[in-house]
Amino acid sequence: MKTLILVIALATATLTSNAYANDNLAAIMKHMGADWKTIATQISDATKNASTIATVNDLIQQINLAKQETPDTVASGAQTEADFQAQLTGVQTTATQLLAALQAGDNATAVGLLSTIKTAKDNGHNQFDPQN
To answer: Residue 79 in contact with residue 20, Cβ under 8 Å?
Structure first.
């Protein structure tokens, strides 16, 4: 029984790690997705701004980490590194504006900026996510 569990665990780890050639970028993107969900859930509630601000700061850190990685579509020549960097820089700029809006207590503006980030996120995933 222990052998079967070990085999299943190894097979799962192998399948998961092969989904992206760049496992580090996949982990960063997963972390960004968790941040995204938290922000989207809290963005309209000004009483949660302190928590949302902390999460946006973390998102910005994750974007900086992602900018140091290369997605599979760039490594394979399907896209360029400049395209990937430009996409992340645009999201980073909007996330910084989102942070400023939250710090100012302007949740209405923050909601609009989050919508802009969602559009950029969706476009980036369509362009660079190897699962598409």
So the answer is: no
